Automatic annotation (TrEMBL):
This is Peptidoglycan-N-acetylglucosamine deacetylase. Gene3D superfamilies: Glycoside hydrolase/deacetylase. PROSITE patterns: NODB. The keyword Hydrolase applies. Keywords: Hydrolase. GO terms for molecular function: hydrolase activity, acting on carbon-nitrogen (but not peptide) bonds.
Amino acid sequence: MRQVRLPAGEKLIALTFDDGPWPVTTEAVLDILKRYQARATFFWVGKNLERYPQIARKVVEAGHAVGDHTWSHQYHKVTPQAAAKEIDSTAALIARDTETSTRLFRPPGGNLKNGLAKYALSKGYTVVMWSVSSADTDPKAPWTAFADNVLRGARPGTIVLMHDGGGDRRRTLEALPVILEGLQQQGYRFVSVPELLAQAQPQELEASRARPAQARP
């Protein structure tokens, strides 16, 4: 796994949110991020974007980055034709509904071997993984565990995995202010994934076009 390394002294961190856009939760995340003047990156599922384009537009209008997370969030192996449909249809909807484009892709479940990442790389996407997971899809964990996971694992250059869609994310909303405040107290600045990659060493940035990006110090 390729790891992006930042110049010494750069305390940057990228929060990412998967599986939206989602009613109530996504807009609540936006409000919290605004409170802390934090930029983030949202990886969208096409079928959710089709249902909630107005929420997606609010994400873009707030200045956050977006990425492609396939149309239907499948984990199984797919043919090249199916991979093209999953990724291209979502990309087309992003362009139509938000008047923006993306070259960021995150495979559902982080699966790099089912054909989706291979297709994305062939089309010039940067495949973005993560270096710290909040584990906020754990149905039994309290929200404090999500915050602890991030605060303990954070390092300069970390990409954090969280979720704003795909289910009940009230615990994520409870954890997010604690995460933001705790990281700010440690001197971190919150940037989007493109902003994080822009701070990488030149050879690292070039490599991101060919291999999955997982940022760490």
